[in-house]
């Protein structure tokens, strides 16, 4: 099992105590006996690598519950119901996570687990990742070239406005196409940057 090596993420300090509740530091001779060094940072790393994490039952339960909610929040922000064309609520996502018997992995990041949850939920429920929204500013004569590329990405233009000889186009497309889309557009079209990108929220009327 991989353990966190960044001490500042898991420890309040790099000090080894013999009695932390009383603030009593462990003596160097005992550290040398147990770890063959009194370098407390290295000792902390060794404990993280080889030791067993001891957390009170209620504290661990609280940590897992908090991370479960974090994961559900991320899933909610990144998905929607394609049948209703509306986003899910956090409580709905939490219920679906319970339905697939999802268990939080305390040693894995919330964002990574959220993507795994989305993948698993997609097997059982109507759920999709929210499309990306991209705003492009390009010369009017490049619009036909843009349309050729959008057809290959299954992208959808939601608005198009003209300002002089420039077009401002806002489009939606699948998250999986994001890198290919931006790379191809920047190389092949005379885009004016910056572009505006986010994960859009769908309304029932759209």
Describe the structure.
With 206 residues, the chain is an alpha+beta fold. The chain is built from 8 helices and 8 strands. The strands form 3 sheets. The protein has a 4-stranded antiparallel β-sheet with strand order 6-7-5-8, covered by helices on one side. β6 and β7 form a beta hairpin. α4 crosses α5 and α4 crosses α6. The protein is elongated, with a radius of gyration of 25 Å. The protein starts with 6 loop residues before the first helix and ends in a 7-residue tail after the last strand. The C terminus is likely disordered.
Kindly list the characteristics that best describe this protein.
206 residues; alpha+beta; 4-stranded antiparallel β-sheet; two-stranded antiparallel sheet
């Amino acid at each position: 099992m991989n353990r966190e090596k960044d001490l500042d993420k898991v420890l309040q300090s790099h000090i080894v105590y013999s009695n932390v509740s009383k603030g009593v530091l462990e003596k160097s001779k005992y550290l040398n006996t147990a770890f063959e060094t009194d370098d407390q940072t290295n000792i902390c790393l060794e404990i993280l690598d080889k030791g067993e994490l001891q957390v009170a039952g209620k504290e661990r339960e609280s940590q897992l519950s908090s991370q479960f909610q974090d994961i559900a929040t991320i899933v909610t922000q990144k998905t929607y119901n394609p049948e209703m064309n509306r986003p899910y609520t956090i409580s709905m996502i939490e219920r679906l996570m319970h339905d697939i018997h999802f268990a939080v992995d305390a040693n894995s990041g919330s964002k990574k687990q959220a993507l795994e949850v989305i993948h698993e939920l997609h097997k059982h429920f109507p759920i999709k990742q929210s499309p990306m929204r991209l705003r492009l500013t390009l010369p009017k004569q490049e619009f036909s070239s843009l349309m050729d590329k959008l057809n290959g990405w299954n992208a959808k233009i939601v608005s198009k406005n003209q300002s002089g000889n420039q077009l401002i186009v806002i489009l939606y497309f699948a998250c999986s196409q994001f890198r290919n889309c931006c790379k191809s557009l920047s190389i092949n079209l005379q885009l004016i940057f910056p572009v505006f990108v986010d994960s859009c929220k769908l309304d029932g009327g759209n």
